[in-house]
Amino acid sequence: MKHIVCFHLFNDYSGSPKVLRVVLEGLLKRGYTIDLVTSRGGVLDELRSYPNLRMHGYSYHFSNRAAVTMLRYCAVQLYTFVLAFRWLLSRNTTFYINTLLPAGPALAGRLMGKRVVYHYHENAFVKGAFYSTLAAVMQRLAHRIVCVSGYQGSFLKRQDKVTVVPNALTADFVSRLKPDPEAAFGRKTVLMLGSLKEYKGTKEFIELSQRLPKYKFELVVNDTEENLTRFIAEQHVAVPENLTVYPRQSDVAPFYNRASVVLNLSNKRDIVETFGLTALEAMSAGLPVIVPTVGGIAEMVTDGVEGYKIDVAELDAIERRIDSMLTDRATYAALAANALSASAGYSAGAMVDGIAAEL
User: Fold this and answer.
1) Which of 113, 221, 283, 288 has the smallest count of CB within 10 Å of its CB?
2) Alpha helix (H) ranges present in 154-286?
């Protein structure tokens, strides 16, 4: 059985480590031996109970100062580059690089003659020169590249040995979701999960909650309570009574189970979602979604079937759709049923099969 050495930079509760957890757990259950090199304190820590997994942790977190974050990033690249050579003499070993960021160990793997496989989650070509450089490095170093959507893969100059494997959710997570369209319609609750980055639509979501005071809004931010408080103060955000804002959560299933509609308000002028993990989580809970009009996330939704595709700049249109969904029981029920049906096409088993075939 193959030995996998997996590198992931920042272990938190965002999309890419969640997906990696599903993949690694599937491989571990199939008997793979895995060394996981990542930071401490996130969703990947939940894999520690598997006897065929060895974790190699380090401390890492982002800073509000870009220069400090870059210094920390470079330090981790140097550390993991050196650490990678402990597997120099390991036979039948593949280096599995999750996201573009672990460039140091990818280079080390090629220098040692290891098979290097990238699981590419970002859209580097809309994220600036730094990510574009990392994408160029990936295309030079990778034996295989796994993309999460056709949209994402279309931007790569290299098209050989590139495959698409859509993301999926853990069976455990899906089992804790309780699809109930009738109850969800009655809850009249609008949910969004995202980050404090301006292009993720946090301020637009707050504005929607101000415009629609008759509905309840919940915002789950993938950041600390401290940073959340600072953001609200610095941006002079007025949080209305019908909006509750939560910091980073280790388990988001309860939020879906008390929601009616889920939004993704990413601004396509600044970022294009290569996949929509929160949209898939919502659809798996039988909830209609509103998502951007382009990107991998847009591939998941047919406008007017599982929800709607609306640009965040069209806030009036989003407001009208939320109101129409939460006042028209028949339309809501049809959207919810379609969303749940579509989610069944994204199975964890198929995703693990796809990744295993590349390793």
Assistant:
1) 113
2) 171-175, 181-187, 202-211, 225-234, 253-257, 277-284
User: Strand pairing partners for 56?
Assistant: 37
Dig out the tokens for 234 from the structure: 């610095």
Could you tell me if 66 and 146 lie in one domain? yes
| C-beta separation of 52 from 34 below 8 A | yes
- The total of structural domains in the chain comes to 2
Q: Say whether 296 sits in a helix, a strand or coil.
A: helix
Task: Answer yes or no: are the C-beta atoms of 228 and 201 closer than 8 Å.
Answer: no
* pLDDT over threshold 70, residue 255: yes
How far apart CA 290 and CA 293 sit, in angstroms, is: 9
Tokens standing for 126?
């809309």
Predicted confidence (pLDDT) per residue in 37-66, tens digit:
999 999 999 999 999 999 999 999 888 888
Neighbouring residues of 319: CB distance < 8 A, sequence distance ≥ 6: 208, 211, 212
Q: How big is the CA angle at 140 (ends 78 and 103), to the nearest 5 degrees? A: 20
For residue 348, tell me if it sits in a domain: no
Cβ atoms < 10 Å from Cβ of 327: 12
Query: 3-state class of 290 per DSSP?
Result: strand
- pLDDT tens per residue across span 215-228: 999 999 988 888 88
Please choose, from the candidates 95, 282, 296, the residue with its C-alpha nearest in 3D space to the C-alpha of residue 194: 282
Does 115 share its domain with 217? Answer: no
With tokens 């798996």, the residue in question is: 284
Encode pLDDT of 175-211 as tens digits.
999 999 999 999 999 999 998 888 889 999 999 999 9
Chain centroid to CA 159: how far? 24
* Whether 83 contacts 55, CB under 8 Å: no
Best CA proximity match to 322, nearest among 210, 221, 174:
210
